[in-house]
Design brief:
The chain has one domain (31-256): Sandwich (Jelly Rolls), CATH 2.60.120.620. It contains seven helices and 14 strands. It has helices spanning 22-26, 32-41, 52-65, 102-106, 111-120, 208-212, 290-293; strands at 43-48, 78-80, 92-95, 126-136, 144-147, 156-157, 161-167, 178-180, 217-218, 225-229, 235-237, 246-255, 259-260, 286-288. InterPro entries: Phytyl_CoA_dOase-like.
Length: 297
């Protein structure tokens, strides 16, 4: 039986160094211009989060994790070797790998990620929601259909969530990089399509005005860089028909104080939180406490 790392809410390895003072945190701060761009467009990309040696370690762990027979597989919330509805393409998708491997556990406590996340959440303390892996193999990688993340997350309220997508390969148009529809975070909550189904399924839920504003932009980034987006940002990614893989992980967080909005499981195997109960504890750790960095006078 593999140790369940969700019980440990601090760095386990030397993958990152935890800042020891407000001054050490400052080097990770986003600029006012970056925050303004996020608020206007609904996303902020090209934020360096990993060095090459950290990427190598995570890719080594990933290679083991995608094996269905890997020890600890039962700790995943979801594990789909292929979530694609097209039998000719492959989209590996999983949730819960932070519980299994030290590197993927410790990326939750990456200071560069956490400072940016806190700023984009209006300077609030950051609590973990869940992680994801999205892997598209070379030549036949599947799509991730246009969608809004929060349309799958209404079981948690209020909407004060944030997503960070980080490439473990260079991502470009050829190998299926993520696309955003700037400004779509102001469209309100839309119905949710099948995540790995028809790429254009969301179009059935858009107004004529929204269809006219639907102008996606590709987010091409070197590996190790991250892109943050609003929970209502419409985004997706096309097939990978290139000779290169496109591996990425996603960190989903929310502001401290988020509550359950369901009497069902929030994630597979996680104890039920009744409606109105604060999400906290073993599976929703506090990643960044703002008051510890910036104590009130």
């Amino acid at each position: 039986m593999v140790n369940d790392l969700s019980r440990i809410h601090e760095l386990l390895s030397d993958l990152f160094e935890w800042p020891q003072s407000e001054k050490e945190w400052e080097k990770y701060r986003l600029s006012e211009e970056q925050i303004a761009f996020f608020k206007e467009n609904g996303y902020l990309s090209h934020i360096k989060l990993l060095d090459s040696w950290q990427i190598d370690q995570l890719n080594d762990e990933l290679e083991a994790l995608i094996d269905p027979d890997h020890p600890g597989n039962e700790l995943f919330y979801e594990f789909k070797s292929n979530e694609s509805e097209d039998p000719n393409t492959v989209l590996f998708h999983s949730l819960g790998h932070w519980r299994i491997k030290e590197g993927f556990h410790d990326i939750l406590w990456n200071p560069a990620f956490l400072m940016a996340a806190s700023q984009l959440l209006d300077d609030k303390s950051v609590r973990f929601w869940h992680d994801q892996l999205f892997c598209k193999p070379a030549k036949h990688g599947g799509v991730v259909a246009w969608h809004q993340d929060y349309s799958y997350w209404t079981r948690s309220v209020p909407m004060q969530h944030l997503t960070c997508w980080v490439g473990l390969d260079d991502a470009d148009i050829q190998n299926g990089c993520i696309y955003y529809v700037p400004g779509s975070h102001r469209w309100g909550l839309l119905d949710k399509p099948e995540l790995a189904g028809d790429m254009e399924g969301l179009m059935d839920y858009l107004t004529d005005a929204q269809k006219k504003e639907f102008r996606p932009v590709p987010i091409e980034m070197e590996k190790g860089y991250g892109t943050f987006h609003h929970p209502l940002m419409v985004h997706g990614s096309y097939q990978n028909k290139s000779e290169r893989s496109r591996r990425a992980f996603v960190l989903n967080v929310f502001a401290d104080g988020t509550q359950s909005n369901t009497d069902q499981e929030l994630l597979a195997g996680v104890p039920v939180f009744r409606p109105g109960e604060k999400l906290e504890g073993q599976f929703f750790p506090l990643l960044l406490d703002r008051e510890k960095i910036y104590p009130k006078a």
